[in-house]
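Q: what sequence does this backbone want?
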């Protein structure tokens, strides 16, 4: 008999294997894959200050502190700084 290698299980698309949970109004939501998380970041539904957790993390942390998600925030500009009216020069 010949040993013919059997094909392994299909490889999931990139970003589909990591599952994140998100804290929304004090409630746990998810799991979401990386593609869904990137879409929520782009839509502004997840910010750098949103609490997230994934398997392997010791506890919940800000999305901006999670390396995989920090890259996604790099694709969207930060909020504009507040615009203060110019102060007229003192006479």
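A:
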């Amino acid at each position: 008999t010949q040993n013919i290698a059997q094909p392994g299980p299909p490889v999931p698309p990139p970003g589909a294997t990591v599952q994140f949970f998100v804290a929304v109004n004090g409630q746990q939501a998810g799991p979401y894959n990386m593609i869904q998380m990137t879409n929520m970041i782009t839509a502004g539904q997840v910010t750098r200050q949103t609490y997230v957790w994934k398997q392997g993390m010791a506890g919940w942390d800000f999305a901006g502190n999670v390396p995989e998600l920090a890259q996604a925030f790099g694709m969207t500009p930060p909020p504009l700084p507040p615009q203060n009216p110019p102060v007229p020069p003192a006479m």
